[in-house]
Amino acid sequence: MLGDFMYYNPTRLYFGEHALDGLREELPKYGKNIQLSYGGGSVKKNGIYDQIVEILRACGKTVIEDGGVMSNPTMEKVLEGCTLAREHHVDLILAVGGGSVCDYAKAVSVSAYCEENPWEKYYLRGEMADNPVIPVGCVLTMVGTGSEMNSGSVITNTAEDLEGGPAKLKLDSKFGERAYPKFSILNPTFTFTLPKYQMISGIFDIMSHILEQYFSGEDDNTSDYVMEGLLHSLCHSAAAAVKNPMDYEARSNIMWTATWALNKFVAMGKATDWEVHMIGQAVGAYTNATHGMTLSAVSIPYYRHILPYGLSKFKRYAQNVWNVSPDGKTDEEIADEGLACMENWMRDLGLVMNLCELGVTEDMLDGIADGTLIRRGGYKVLTREEVLEILKESMGKANV
Ligand code: NZQ
Ligand code: ZN
Fold it and tell me: Is 218 in the same domain as 350?
């Protein structure tokens, strides 16, 4: 481990089949008015909504309905949520859903009483929340983002009047310690009704979070060993969950891995990359595609591109994660074989491996490249031309 750091995570987790009991313990800590935020209706179909409303009523709370949070939530929706929160003097925002609902709730939490334009303050300037913040609690129904135990929030802004730069942006912000969920309820059975497409997208999101942190730095770092363990567990459980989506053990392991992949623990002492996410988010801004699939479509071309700059780590990845035998092979061959194993695993899982499938067309590529932020923590700082090259490769159109 190199470098100094401070690690603190204020989110209280309730995990397991009876995790919702934790809501009864938490609710007395907050005032009467609860903004109940949820997505497009899955929680009503699978009965989770009813279970929660029953608990809220039993605890004497007033429910302020806030449904219709879309996947890849927009700034427009966040501002509507802020108005609702102010009008009803909301004491707690209870997010019931996946990363989109959790991210939205955090954005409303820090923006409702923000005196400036929250998009500019948080997403363009990346400032911390320094105004009154409404507490957030999460009941997770979709696994992958890690939003349940971090302060991150990713919001899309497609407003016509975005000043300067590209017309469509999907950006993340971390509002600081005060914006972490106060508590999160993680019941693996709540994920049983997820369609396979969403389940595997979430699984790849987890893998990507781990790899974004793994592929950085040259030092001997405990986090790298932890991440290799998380990857083993993820691959093992993914196979079991695809075979039987009701496999509680597999779904619970995936849920727990997701949380640890992005609650900052494994980032300690590391530079961390995040370029796959930067490209994926820019793709998302143009297509509104499912987050994990934007990552799967660009990952292999990206990693092939940076492999020569981080050869020893890619070799380690091949051997320690994909059990590639080094016998009689050069370092490059071992590293390449690791990526080939990863690609095969991704194809077997059923992930999207081509941007065209997500609706990306040639005329979008310049805008997507402009909307891709360049991060400096990985093995290669990309140029805009390299981003374009990776995008083209991800469409199966390299050298066109
Ligand atoms: O809207 P409903 O009807 O609820 O349907 C949702 C949605 O269509 C459905 N779903 C969720 N739980 C379900 C269910 N369907 C059946 N049964 C259930 N139990 O799944 C769909 C996807 O949900 P969503 O919340 O959009 O997915 P996810 O959790 O992948 O969140 C994606 C968002 O999180 C951001 C992404 O960019 C994207 O905007 N991220 C947030 C991060 C963070 N806060 O740290 C980091 C991530 O890298 C990511 O960028
Ligand atoms: Zn992600």
Answer: yes
